[in-house]
Amino acid sequence: MIDRAVAKLADYAEHAGLTAKCERTWAINTILDVLKLDSYTEPERDWDPENIELAPILEELLDGAHARGVLTENSVVYRDLFDTELMGRLTPRPAQVIEKFQALYRETPRKATDWYYAFSQDTNYIRRDRIAKDMQWKAPTEYGDLDITINLSKPEKDPKAIAAAKNLPASAYPRCQLCAENEGYAGRVNHPARQNHRIVPITINGSPWFLQYSPYVYYNEHCICLNSEHVPMKIDRACFAKLLDFVRQFPHYFVGSNADLPIVGGSILAHDHFQGGRYTFAMEKAPVETPVTFPGFEDVEAGIVKWPMSVVRIISENPDRLIDLADKILLAWRGYTDESAFIFAETDGEPHNTITPIARRRGEKYELDLVLRNNITTEEHPLGVYHPHAELHHIKKENIGLIEVMGLAVLPARLKEELAAVADALATGSDLRADELTAKHAEWAEGFSKNYTITRDNALDIVQKETGLVFAQVLEHAGVYKRTPEGKEAFLRFLNSL
Q1: Which one of 24, 320, 373, 389 is most buried, by most CB atoms within 10 A?
Q2: Global confidence as pTM
């Protein structure tokens, strides 16, 4: 049986273009080496090489390795380290990948990214089987259909791996999970293996960067553009220039940056990077509801976007004009205080104002969305005034980064079970407060349930719809200017000050 799995993996690698036909014997021996097997008999091939699913083959090989004592621990962390080594041995060298990408890019940028995205899945760097487990749905709101995903693809560390990690000597290599030095890294129990990971060098605004894909793929072709140097994220004039240069080179992708301050920034502020991809978010579809003209930039289309967060959209065929205007808005916002709107540029020397920028192309025009952010905290809101407030934490407590800003909620895995339990309780009339899975959601569910006739058939759909409405509220909380007459007036007060 193990020989069949070995042969099928070799066939998979050949069919996926990871290895050549002439490399089959080498591929078999490579697989045997990782599995610590010293013999092999070619089985009768009764399968279609075009329809081989990778995940079941790897599962079979890992189970066999554990049974023979080659894989000493059988938890997800150790299995991931082992199967990544296996796939890494079959993954083409970086130079081969770069050559292929650049050759396709010379034909069209889209051909290059189409191939590279499929390649990143074929190597199992993006684990198709896990991504498929993520729950996803669209939720209608006054701001359009928001995307909701419950992320189930990130494996949780097991207790043995956590214990082993505590005993590891401190390591500053790789410096972070974004650094280029992750390419080919064998990993350890507290750092993912990346032998099957390949990055592509690109030049952004005259400086060396790399392109890769996110292994967790929150949306279609979720890519990461990372600085070749381990330098902190910074929103500045150069950032706007880099974003616009990226969409010049990859006009079928959007690209954006997390903000550069804690709370309103992303999870990795220590390494300058952007996120992009081929996906249309709700924010992109949202119209400009209040046109604005900036003095000296009459040639630039501009306005406030109909969105729960505070977004200024600027559009021009000339990217340099957008860079100039975006820089002017950023510098003004960094130093802007309006006490009546509870906006403070700084308190006790700590800066609070920054921007989350997103760039895209619409035909010949370049478009920048500038989302105004502020990370001030108070006793009432210790996690941030412009952050999901406590009454919404049962759904979303985490920071609102770039992806959420654009209208995609990345919700924790716990909600799969919890929302299903809420739906079941509503359908059966059970006491929401009696079950720890549903108790934290009870007040919310009791509030909306009176608006529906809930049955077993529609309960989960209703709960999911209402979850989307909570996410819209989350974004409203994160907006520095509220969508009230007073909020709109305060927003225009800032824009008119430029």
Answers
A1: 373
A2: 0.95
